[in-house]
Amino acid sequence: PRHSSVSAAFWEHLWYLGLQDFPCGLGSWNKSRFDAHRSPSRGQPGQEEAVMLDEESPEVLMELLRDPHSPWALPPDCSSQDQYLREVAVLAPELISGSNIFKVLRTLRIVGKGVEEVDEGLLQLQKLEELILSANQISRITSANLPRTLKVLELCCNAVADLQDLCTQPPPELQHLGLGYNKLCGPSQDKYLTVDFWPNLVSLDLSFNSFTDLLEMIAQLSSLQKLRILVLQGNPLALIPTYRGFLVDSLPKLSILDDIHIGPDERHQFQGLAKQPELIRREAHLVVRIGEIKGVPDPSTHQHLEVDSEAPVITYSYCVTYEF
């Protein structure tokens, strides 16, 4: 289903979890367990026993949630937070009833729902620490609509082309920012990748965007003193022959670059390279290998014509075009 806003997708997701339906929530399957402290009188002798016999124990209800063969089990791709909410809905449903759900939720995962807008409804999630909005259609994010408690913001596979609105009032405690597979390009966006906006950033994913200026990128990222994990593969600047060496030497506190650990030997190998910017050439070398072609006649299979033969000679020529 498509949802224009994160809030709409959020409420749809809660409905999908069925937090008010068996075996979660309150109902004939567990009502007396939660009414016991409210109702001093339980009616005629023996009536309480009859009601209890019609109910299920917490252990049985939890088993219905956890058993992968149960019709009430969540699909394997659901998050651990989803499973946690359903278990709370069995053991203490009052904790997530009504607006109480906003005080419990720490992780929100809305993936592939066609979301286009990060709206102010998210501010109700007072303790949200992790927000995953991958594979949607978000092009701009207003930071004023993000909870200040966020530590992880994942926006992979969207249409983000401008970081200005996100950096107006970014979450101060953010540790991971995922912007891979978007539409970012320099130099207009490089300036938003500094400590002025992200003082606590530890992990940054900018893979598969359109950044081209390696020296400018390094100049901005070098201010992120807490940065330890960086992903830049898939950008044009990653095609520069000295790309990895310059980053390793320019960012001495970096531990992982493009999912590859930076060891002492590699640091020693590239030592001093950052002081030689003239080695960065404004060009990239590509080697393209064609492994297999189908549907094209193979000239080697044709028999050689006899000498002085008057048969027509057929030649073929092909053109291959690459678009970058």
From TrEMBL:
Tell me which Gene3D superfamilies the record gives.
Ribonuclease Inhibitor
Pfam families according to UniProt: LRR_1 (PF00560)
GO CC terms of this entry: cytoplasm
SUPFAM superfamilies, per database record: Outer arm dynein light chain 1
> InterPro entries annotated for this entry?
Leu-rich_rpt, Leu-rich_rpt_typical-subtyp, LRR_dom_sf
Record keywords: Leucine-rich repeat, Repeat
Superkingdom, taxonomy of origin: Eukaryota
Q: What is the protein's name according to its record?
A: LRC43 protein
Query: What's the name of its gene?
Result: Lrrc43
